[in-house]
Amino acid sequence: MPVYSPSFASFANPANFLVYRNAAQNSGSAAFAIVNFDTKFYDTGNNVDTVTNVGRFTPPYTGWYHLDASVGSSAAISSDAIVSVFKAGAEYARGNRNKLASNLDSISVSITLKLTATTDYIEINCFGNPQFALGVGSGPIATYFSGFLLATA
């Protein structure tokens, strides 16, 4: 009986990315502010803008995408914090709300959603009350945004 051996050459994903915040930035001050993910760890389809609309993901295909984002604090501060996924400029999904108390605390959001290639884009926003400094570093350890295409629609 022959053994089935799949070919993985056809599994290339044009929307697979991990970006992070490498330069200093603050959260919003009692309001949401776009997190400017300025450094690419990888971005197979070059779908995340790190120049003009810094941190914006634009889907190359209409389909189902899975997205994850995490925002950390760079200093010990007592701040009420929220991270949200904004779709085409409007809040779409809110992550956990947390009272950040140390530089080891973080907030996150994770969602699977359908995106349209011609009209949608995703930005991660962060709320702080009071405002706090986002965790940054040389790699996706503190503040990052990742995603991948699950299926086209």
Structure characterization notes:
By secondary structure, the chain is mostly beta strands. The chain has a single domain (15-152), classed as Jelly Rolls. The chain is built from no helices and 12 strands. It has strands at 16-20, 28-29, 32-34, 39-43, 48-49, 56-57, 63-72, 79-87, 90-100, 106-115, 122-129, 144-152. Strands 4-1-12-7-10 form a 5-stranded antiparallel sheet, with no helix packed on it. Strands 2, 3, 8, 9 and 11 form a 5-stranded mixed sheet that branches. It is globular, with a radius of gyration of 17 Å. It starts with 15 loop residues before the first strand and ends with a strand. The mean pLDDT is 88.
Secondary-structure blueprint:
Elements: E1 16-20, E2 28-29, E3 32-34, E4 39-43, E5 48-49, E6 56-57, E7 63-72, E8 79-87, E9 90-100, E10 106-115, E11 122-129, E12 144-152
Parallel strand pairs: 2-11
Antiparallel strand pairs: 1-4, 1-12, 3-11, 5-6, 7-10, 7-12, 8-9, 8-11
Cα gyration radius (Å):
17 Å
Number of helices: 0
- Provide mean pLDDT, rounded: 88
- Distance from N terminus to C terminus (CA atoms, Å) equals 36 Å
Beta-strand residue percentage: over 45%
Tell how many strands the DSSP assignment holds. 12
Give the strand order, joined by hyphens, for the main sheet: 4-1-12-7-10
What is the H/E order? EEEEEEEEEEEE
What does the main sheet amount to?
5 strands, antiparallel
Pick out the low-confidence regions: none
Indicate the CATH architecture: Sandwich
CATH class category name: Mainly Beta
The residue fraction in helices comes out at under 10%
Provide the structure class: mainly beta
Number of domains: 1
Give the CATH topology: Jelly Rolls
Query: Which descriptor suits the 3D outline?
Result: globular
